[in-house]
Each structure stands twice: as C-alpha cells, then as structure tokens.
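Lab meeting, action items carried over

1. Structure of the two-component assembly. Owner: GW. Status: complete.
Input record:
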Amino acid sequence: MTSAWTDSRVVDALDAEEARLERLRDDVESGRTRVSLLRAQRELDRVREGASGTAEMIERAALRDDVRTLADAQVLIREQRGQIQRLEGEIEALRAERHIDALTGCLDRGGFDEMLGREWNRAMRGRNSVGLVFVDVDAFKDVNDRFGHQVGDEALRAIAHAIVGEAKRSGDAVGRYGGDEFLVVIPGADLPGALAFGERVRASVATLRLRVDGAAVPLSVSVGAASATPSMRVKREELVRRADRAVYRAKEAGRNRAVAVAVEEGLDVFYAPEPPKAAQDATRAQQSRSSPRRR
Amino acid sequence: MESRDIVARRITALDDAEVYAERLRARLHEGNLEGADRALAQLETKVRAGEGILAARRARLG
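Predicted assembly:
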C-alpha cells in the first residue's frame, strides 16, 4: 500500500519536472528567436546608419562634381539597400514564424492563444492553477485623437515594454490581444498572485512619462486578474472571460486600477489589491492625527 | 524507498535553468545582446542537463 502511494508520488514528481522542462524548452525556442531578432535589428540599425552616411556622401560628391566618389558611393548604397532589404525580410520572417507582433514585440493573438493552450494543458496534467491578467489601456482613443497615431503607437510600445518587464519568470508570456489590449499568462499563479502581478503592471505603467511638444501624454491601464485550475467545468475561454469581466469592473470603478475576480457559487466576487504597507501606515497616522479634531 | 525519494527530488539543473531563463528575459528587455547570448547558451546547457537527468530518473523508476 505504502509502496503504491510512494510510486504515484514519484511519478507525479517526475511529471512536474517534465512540465517544467517543457516550459524551459519553450523559453529556449523563444529566446533563440528573440536573440536572432535583436541581432538582426542591431545589424539593420548599423546598415541604415551607414546608408544615411553614404547618401550624404553622394550629395556632397554631386555638388563638387566629383564623378569618381559619386560612382563609388552609388555602388556602396546599392549594396547597403540590398542588405537592408535582406535584414528586413529576415526580421519579418522571424516575427511571422514565432507569431510576434511587429509593433510591440509581444506575441500576437494567434501566438498567445497557442501559448495559453499549452500552459492550460500542462496545468491540467499537473493539476496546477493558471493565472491570467488582462491589461486594457485607458482612454487610448483619446491619445490617438489628441496626439496622433504615431504617438499612440509609441504609447503602446512603452506600455508593452513595461508589461514585459514584469513578466520575469519562466513560462510568463505576454500577448497583444487587440489594438490596446494585452493578456499575460502566469503559470502556477493563484488569484492573489495574479492580482499582485496586475497591480505591479498598473503601477509600472503609471510611472511612464511620454511627452509630445511639452504636453504630457496621459498613460494608465485598467487590469483584470483571474486564476483557475483547469477542469471539465472550467475551460480556458472561461478564464479569459473572467479576466475580461474584472477589467470591465476596473474601468467602471474609475480606471487606472487592478481588480481580480473569483467565481463563488456562480457569482462574480471582485477583489482589489491590498494597499502597500507604507500607504496603510500613512493612512492610519493621518486618521489618528485628525481624530481629535473630528471629535 | 530511499532511492525513490532521490528520484522524486527537484532537478537542480532545472532550477538553474529557470534562473538563466529569467536572466535571458532581463537581458532581452534591456536590449543587451551580448548578455542575452550568454544567458541563452547557459540556459540551453542546463536544459540539456535536465533532459538527461529526467530520462535517467524515469529509466530508474522503470
């Protein structure tokens, strides 16, 4: 009896290690792509810089009627244009192969769905939880309308960078789900863990400073967090829907906040993060200072 | 019994791999190509080691 129990414990432990290994293999694959992308991008920047120098050389040679330099520079710029084309093609192919969104560098929707599916199956096998965080940019249409789409793109890039900066652990994956919506899968996260992650993302975005012609671009996000252990009753689509409902609640409550949702007896119960201890202490101190006056 | 306990232990090569995976993410986030390259190479080494250890443990379990 003891032996059978021990065997199943050992098998479970090995299965958990197998799941960890699978996730790390994903990290290797995506790491290789991202390193290749970064290398190609660096090379592209270098060649573009060279090409801009060559263009200036052509302009100067033309002004001086320097036919020989002009001919050499024209050969050079043809080569550089060829290199630029090759590198741009390489970058595009890498992005397409690994479902990487060109604007933000996150997974695109298809890539994210695949990743979430893999995590969901792993969690089902290991009977673990999956945390999901839905990040929706506040008033993004206003940013586009007021500052233009280029600034809107820059804002999305900055926000994506802030989210990716928080997704540090093996297996964490960030996807751009819609125009101004991001999803993050956090393997093994329970509801407080997912909410804490969401709050860190919210706080990190709130510190971003983007200015256009001296005017500050207001940047904030509303965040919805959910967590579930896969079962016959709870499908992964339900997890996405829950996180979506939590975002909706965060928007309703005034934006720039994180909210988590748990389903208890068929009803949504929403939670907000605990304020940081320093803020709690400050509030208590303020209350104790002001209480005599209230009396 | 004792050897089963050993087989059920966490694989330290995978613990190390997780550290390198985290480092790789951080270096990529910083745009540090050389650092990312190094972290990726270490991650690959640790993952290969983990694969070997896991296969050996499964074989030992039978």
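2. GW to write a short summary for the group page. Key points so far: The first strand of chain A starts at residue 130 and ends at 137. Chain A has a mean pLDDT of 91.
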